[in-house]
Amino acid sequence: MSALSRTTEPSAEDRQWLTLVGRKRVLAVVHTVTYGKRLLDVLSLLEADFRLQVVFTAPPHTFGDEVPRFLARLESAVLPWDEAVRMTFDLALTAGPRGVERLDAPLITLPHGANYLKLITGSGEGAAGLRRRDLAPGGKLPAAVVVPHHADLRELARHCPEALPVAHVVGDPVHDRITASLPLRAAYRRALGLADGQKLVVAASTWGPRSSFGRFEALLPRLIAELPADRYRTAVLVHPNVWSGHGPWQVRAWLARCSRLGIGLVPPDADWRSVLIAADWIIGDHGSVTLYGTLTGAPVLLACSPEQEINPASPAAALAVTAPALSPTHPLEEQLRYAAAEYRSEAHAAIAARITSQPGRFNRNMRRLMYRLLGLGQPAHEPVTLRLPPPLPLDAWAADPGEASA
Which of 7-11, 132-136, 265-269, 358-362 has the lowest mean pLDDT? Predict the structure, then answer.
């Protein structure tokens, strides 16, 4: 057992190995890559505070196969899950519910995507992320439930009213970083390697049987065949759960021919947000990436939009009746022109406004909440919303499975 994993203050023997002792301990609970990437935006608010020690843990999860590599790239201190549940922490952060009732810490739960888009039907019916089983697993409420919009409190009152006293309308970190980074759109396009006058089509998919990924077999060859290569480039954003569920080699193998022909397949650990900002069109589905696309000013087309999986109270439901549906029979370039001609910025802005009722204030609100639960004063400076780093060139993501693993 390492000195970090002691359940009490370090012994005299441990102190010879630790440089800083007596720190407040913060645990980041990373079930999946998607959850981990959301937590990184939050953990950035704790940077440069020598009063804190942040450690990570990875509970068992169906889509957790890629988490060890994700944490290894962070070069973070990682505790085994069975060790973390035997310890006490001053704060824990999670974007998913599995197993967190076993933790001994004031716990903050966050959504892992845009708003609460997906509807779960059956015995546990409700908006995913706002149901009792999501917020109070094992019957144990967290110290704080973070939601992005005041309207979410109405949904919370329906599905888990006992969580209302600990609910906090904080905002959305992805919304804020995208909007802060919009002025860098031209720089992102240059970084992707787009030539003057070239247009970028971003094809985005969430996960699950009704996602648009199942249609990529037909869609991506059309993007290659129907859109002239000198005037169009394509980037593909696939939900990390697809990569984890089927395996990175398999996803690359399925899309290998399209990738060899120039489509950029953005890997799951890359930051997709700058790619989305660079788009001229977004072809998506009912996932978070498509909804965040309403912030960028790019016309959105829907490859699929399954009504039975969309929370009717969410902005995804509004987008489903606003964005044009992609046709399998009409010429693709004609459909892109139609989407651009029919695009109404005010309609998309109204949908985007439903992502958060605290635009630009996530960092301020979230940092205040964390430090209150830690029992510490906040650092004496305003938290800054950083602009997104530039992406890699599209050609760097156009590789076959053998090249990608080499």
Answer: 7-11
Given the DSSP bridges, would you call strands 126-127 and 119-120 parallel, antiparallel or unpaired?
antiparallel
Check if the beta carbon of residue 28 is closer than 8 Å to that of residue 43: yes
Phi, psi of 295 (to 5 degrees): -80, -15
For residue 202, give the nearest of 216, 214, 190 by alpha carbon. 216
Q: How far apart are CA 66 and CA 97, in angstroms?
A: 18
Fold of 3-174+358-374: Rossmann fold (3.40.50)
Structure tokens that stand for 239 in this block: 């939900």
Domain 184-356 classified CATH 3.40.50.2000?
yes
- pTM here is 0.92
Give CA–CA dist 175/192, Å, rounded.
Answer: 22
103: nearest Cα among 46, 37, 57, 144: 57
Q: How far apart are CA 82 and CA 286, in angstroms?
A: 35
Taking the alpha carbons of 65, 66, 68, 69 in that order, is the dihedral positive or negative?
Answer: positive
